[in-house]
Amino acid sequence: MKAPSMALLRAFAPITHSQTLPWTARGCLAQQQKSNFSTTEQRQARDKNRGPKKDPRITQIRYHLYHPLTPRPLRFSRNRALRHWTIHRAWQRYLDEQRKQTERTLERQYNAMSAACEALRLVDAHGLTADERTKIGESNTKEEGRLYRIAMLKTGVWDKVPIEYGRIQTETPPRKGWNHEWTR
Amino acid sequence: MNAGQQSARRIASQNALSRDTVCISCRHRLASHASRRHASAATAAVAEEPPRTQTNPSNPPVTATGPKKAFQLKCSPVLSRPPVITRELTSFEKAFFLYQKRLNERLALPFTRYFYTKKETPGDIEWKRKRSLRRGTAARDIGAYNAYDDEKWNDEVLVGSKLGDPEDITERLILDAEGKDITEGEPQGDAETGGETISGDARAGEGSQKPVAEVNVERPASRITEADEQNDVKSLNRKLDRSLYLLVQNKDGQWRFPEDRVYGRENLHQAAERILLQAGGINMNTWVLANHPIGHYVNAFKSPILSKILPNRLVRTSRELEQEEYGEKVFFLKSRILAGQADLSQNEYKDKDFSWLAKEEVEKVVSKHYWSQIRNMLTER
């Protein structure tokens, strides 16, 4: 007797069916979802005996920082509000002015630096540019831009940064003052 | 040394090393190597020299075709001391900060006393003693202003009050730490005191209880130092909130940053470090920030100067040369002083004097032409 065909069973059996899931979803079967999708805190049931023990410090802070007037309203009269607005605008103008001055100083310094680098680039070992050479009547040039090429190297520029350079400005000077007696 | 160097050059010119196939720096290194070997047996070298120079007349002297025309190529380290303390606040800033503090007082919660001190502890008793005088204000830097009483609207300070000054705040904090009364700089009276100053009032209670022991709180050092008062331009303790630059008076009497020629094969960074050593002595802890210049100064002489440059003893590759100089080009390198002081006793450039000056003082001592080219690279503060 001929055995019945398994083709139908293979097509509709649950085992084989799960294999036909897209490969991206196969991980879902291996590891079931346990955590919530939401990031909000899970509330405990309202039973005092069941919940986790609260930190007494947190209780204290919550107790002391409670005030019926929070957040406090800041109420200004009409003139007072106008005065506040004026002060605010004056402060913004002042900050603008400061920022502008800082930027200008930095710009001046940057321009001085780039001009110096450009001048260094054009200079040869005798301190002459091509223009000056023709003007003075010097024909031969030597090592034009050598100092510039060396100056542009950035190798090891961060190697010897002294630790004292990290000192920040303070409101009052150190008690001992500057160390004039330092010797090598 | 001189004889050794010459013989070294002669050796270099005789053999294949003098051809263009060898680069200049390699040739220099080999040449100086040979010179060192000769220096150890100097007498022998001198003894055998004369016959060889006669056999080699093809070595032309440098000045055979007249002196080389050139500009003086100089390097100049701009040695500066960065500001040590923060800048002085403007009156507007002081007033604005105080205004903001008082506004914050209006928005914040009231002082929660038992959060900071337990009942009947010394801190609590101290607070109780001071509370009435301070009108319940815990902060020491905003004066007697309570944002929770009926006078809360009155949060603006009278004209001429010293209330927001940093010195004033420091003073109050110290007085408070010593257990003393914080005296008001202005009358902060209200209806109860009849417009009188409320602090220092014996009836109010703060002065009635004497502290148990005399407490001496150490005061911060003054922002204005002794060097400021004497205007000692040699001291690095002067003008602590500004950058100070080292200027030297050279042998011609001109004030400039320390400067010298770039010798031989050295680069600007090496030159700057060498010049700091040769100008200011070894007892300065300095740091040259970068390899590139931050500014330059170009000056054309009225008539060319014929100058003979002797080799520098610290630069091995420098040689004696003579050139006709039409001007000078100075490249400034930024450097910082971290400790120590300049000392001109070992100065090799015959500098007469030095001083540490802020930007506007630099303008007063240097020449106009020099100033016009250095002003942009100096920082404002």
From TrEMBL, chain A:
Region annotation Disordered: where it falls in the sequence: 33-57
Polar residues bias spans: 33-42
Matching Gene3D superfamilies: 6.10.250.3440
Record-linked InterPro entries: Ribosomal_mL40_fung (IPR042831)
Skewed-composition ranges (Basic and acidic residues): 43-57
Domain of life: Eukaryota
PANTHER family: 54S RIBOSOMAL PROTEIN L28, MITOCHONDRIAL, LARGE RIBOSOMAL SUBUNIT PROTEIN ML40
Name this polypeptide is given: Uncharacterized protein
Organism: Zasmidium cellare
Organism classification: Eukaryota, Fungi, Dikarya, Ascomycota, Pezizomycotina
Automatic annotation (TrEMBL), chain B:
Record has Oxidoreductase as a keyword: no
Localisation per UniProt entry: Mitochondrion
InterPro entries, sorted: Ribosomal_mL46, Ribosomal_mL46_N, Ribosomal_mL46_NUDIX
Keywords (A to Z) from UniProt: Mitochondrion, Ribonucleoprotein, Ribosomal protein, Transit peptide
Entry similarity comment: Belongs to the mitochondrion-specific ribosomal protein mL46 family.
Name of protein: Large ribosomal subunit protein mL46
Entry's transmembrane regions: none
Database matches in PANTHER family: 39S RIBOSOMAL PROTEIN L46, MITOCHONDRIAL PRECURSOR-RELATED, LARGE RIBOSOMAL SUBUNIT PROTEIN ML46
Main localization of the protein described in the UniProt heading: mitochondrion
The Large ribosomal subunit protein mL46 N-terminal domain, residue ranges: 73-228
A Pfam family matched in the record: MRP-L46
Region (Disordered): 35-68, 177-221
